[in-house]
Structures are given as C-alpha cells and as structure tokens.
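INPUT
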Amino acid sequence: MNAPVPDTHGSVGIVEPKLLELDQGVTLQCGEVLPRLELIYETYGDLNQDRTNAVLICHALSGHHHAAGFHSETETRPGWWDNCIGPGKPIDTNRFHVVSLNNLGGCHGSTGPRSVNPKTGEPYGEDFPTVTVKDWVKTQAMLADALNIERFAAVIGGSLGGMQALQWAIDYPDRIGHAVLIACAPKLSAQNIAFNEIARLAIKMDSVDGSSDEALPGLGLARMIGHVTYLSDDSMGTKFGREVKSGDIEQGRDVQFQVESYLHYQGSRFAQTFDPNTYVLVTRALDYFDPAIEHNDNLVDTLQPATAKFLVISFSSDWRFSPERSNEIVDALVAAGKSTVSANIVSNMGHDSFLMDIPRYFTVLKTYLASVADELDA
Amino acid sequence: MRIDLKHVADFVEDNARVLDLGCGDGKLLEYLQESKSIRGYGVERDQDAIESCIQRGVNVIEHDLNSGLDRFPDDSFDIVVMTETLQALESPRTLLRELLRIANRCIVSFPNFGHWRCRFQLLFRGRMPVAEHLPHAWYNTPNIHLCTFRDFDEMCQLEKLEVVERSVIDPKYRKVTSKSALSNLFGTTGFYVLGRGK
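OUTPUT
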C-alpha cells in the first residue's frame, strides 16, 4: 500500500529545514562561551520587499523548528503547529514570512547536549552549559540578523514560547512590533517548579544502577508527569474515563486502565525521540525565567522598556499556567501603559489548549494578526 | 449607545488614562483616542464585542465586572467611564465605589426607570415596562438593578459623592442639564459625572 499523501489544503506544503552556522559563537548568561553554534530553522511564506512581515515562532518545552508543513511526501504528521500556520490560517503565510527555529540546547538539529564539545571531542551530554530564556532570545536575534530581518512584525509563542516573546519585548524593544503570549506566565510558581524537579529526578534515576527501564526510561516517566499537567481532569475524564484496557476490574487482577496505557505510550514514544539532557536544560530554563528579578520583582518596571503591542491569551481549564497567571502579565502591562488585548478562552483541554484549533481562540488570533498585517500594508 | 460620544469627550482631558468598563465594541475608546489622544483600556466580557475592539485597534481586557475590580489599583486611571452597564451589574453600589477608587472622576450613564412610559405601563397596563430605552422583556432582560434618577441621586448622597454634572438625555438624544423634577419623568437616560466628594 502506498503511504498516504499529505493533505496540503491550507498547508505550507513540503518544507526544508535550513542550518545556520554562527562561527562567532555566543556568550551565555551563565558566563560560559559556546565558541560556535548551529541553529536549525524553517521559514514559511514570502518575505516582503521591505522585509517587514517576518514573524517569529518560539517553541515550548518539547517543540522544535518544524512547526508547519511536511518534510516529505511520505511524512504523515505535519509540523507541530500546522493547524495554526499556513495560507489562510491564523498565522497566515499569505501575509507573513514565518520563521521557526529549534532553540539552542535543543535536540532537533540546533547545537545542544547531543552536539560535540570542541574541547573534548565528545558530545556535551549533561555538561552542556545552562541556557536561559534570555539566551534563547539573544540567539534568535542572531538568527534574525543572519536573515537580514531588522524587526519582527510579531513574536508569537505558547507556554515557554510565550515567555520568549515576553523577553523579546523587554530585551529588543526596537525589533518587535507585537508580542503574542499564549498560555503563559511571568514566572513559574512553586508548584510548576515542583513538577519540573520530579521530572528531572525521573531522568536522573536512569543513571542509578539497575533502575533504568528500557521500555520506559526516566525521560518517559518525566513526560508522563508533564503530560498530566498539560491536560485537565475534565479532558482526561472525557477522553479516558475509567475505561479498562485489559484485565478484570471486578477481580482486581492485572488491570490496566486506558489512561495508563495512553500515558505509557506517550512516555515511551517521547523517550525514543527526545534527549534527556535537553529536557533537564529546558525545564531549568523554565524554572529560572523571572524577568522581574532584575527590577526588584516589579513586573511593571520590567515592562517599561517595551514598545511592542501585546496580545495575551489564556485558557479557562489551564492549571499549569492558569488565566490568573496571564492576568498578572496583563495587569502589569496595563499599569505600564502598554497596548494590550487579553482574551480568556473557555476550553476544557487544559494547558494543551494552546495547540488546539479551538474556534474562538483561532478567531481572536486571526483577527489580531490580520490587523498586524493590515498595519504593515498601510 | 444612547449617549453621544461627544458628551463623554467633553469631560475627558487630552492624553488622559481612560478605563471604559463594559466598553462594548470599542467605539467610544476609538473616538477618544482620535479626538483626545487618550490612552484607553476597555473591559468587556462579550466575545463579539472583544472581536470588534481588536478590529478597531482598541485595547481591551476580557474581564467580567461582576468578579470585581481588584485587579485595577487605586488611582491607576484619570477617569473611569461606565455607560449603560450599571443596571446590569450584580452589585452596582460596590462597583460605583470601586470606580472612584480607581480614578477620582467617573462618568456613569444608565436608563431611567422613572420615565413616564415605564410608569404608564406599570400603572395602567399592569405590565413590566418595555420602552425604546429599555427594550427587553422581564424574562430576558440583562437589567437586574434598574433605578430612577431620583434613586440614583439618593445613592450619590448616601455615598457622599460629588456630582460634577447631572444631565438627562431626552428621547431625541439631546443632552439636557436639568435639575427639574420633570427630568425624572421625561429623560430616558441619566448621565452623571461624579467625583469622590469630601
């Protein structure tokens, strides 16, 4: 049987990743220097003559550069945000030139723990230096320089990606027109950090003798923990309920619930493709993110340099980064006198809502970005 | 909207920070942005209205006024505007206090339940009033706290508010500054500019 042909309706179609080599290296926030680095990225839609219609997509914990389209005719799954990026979609490639990269420290082609450390000739592994949201934004700006993009019409991200968009507005006020922050928070709560630490510990347990499970290594367990926090009680109830996959619940023997099976599958699949050191690095970057720390914990003062206009979107059932966390950002933006639109979308899908094509969510995003594109055309 | 945008603009200073509670489609803020260069924010809970605000390029915060205004600090705005919204709130008195905590000036407008058509329908027909300025039937009206001008005047006294301006809008949408008792009979909409008082 032939492989299914990807549906290219509203799709950017076949895309090819590109690799940027930055031989000038970069000094990271922690003080360490990476003598050279590579960033893998994709672009969708044409850059206009004035080079003003570029939009940067910042990915979240497990994301990467492949946000839309297909890498080949035979690829069955499109990029991770394909429902949102493409011709006629909320991030409309007929109007915007979309840039999407794999962040530094990632495991999908940009320099990261799997890359060779020039000092040792071996992969960095767990010795890869600490990378922060600020470092990501800095290296994203280096990518923009290389692409000769002086200013992004918008920087867009969900979750950890939203944090990058926020950092962009603070660190490069002249280089960003709009910041779109989706299911985001100004910093992690103790509960958020706690979940991240449990995930990291699950990964570290692998190095303890005999504790590693080949079918489900620590990274898989870490993903299971994370995954539960991305969903809601309601959505898990709807999807799985108490449905039993195997075993006899009346006798209480060898029972496996559907939800268990699902999480095992998600965990082991993730562990096959993702790098445990990247997972540790990215969760650390999440934990450390707190732009207001340089301003006596005053988010209003922190946001003062920003000149971008902001769109902040949250989801009612998101308990990882709840609407109240988005409101902290919104209220600080209002107090700082920044242009702001906020929307709270009713959804039962938890934090993962930001990846779903929820009609009202996409309408808000589409309406807002259409006005951004209109501004450029005016 | 029953009151003219210009009526509001008369009381808004250039470059003022304006909070418009229940901003609807954002027309007032758009008008004030253009005519007074204000920095305005709308607060709205209706999805379609929020869409319109985005299209107009007006700042809008999705928020339900019935959940309170704690998120807006004391004196964070120069003026708060709330047109045709007071009567639909769960706690209008509490909210009125909040308005004058957030700014030392507020503009409030509301439909007059003391208008003669309302009185007539209740008195002679024994029916809940339905009029041009109060178009809903009793079972689907969002207006759960209706009042007359006299009621509102009493509230301003109770709260010791400074009444900077008290006008009524007549059925031809003209603003009439009137202290006469007849205004409570013939005015459809009340237009009040209030201050904190002493």
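end of record. Chain A has ten helices and 16 strands.
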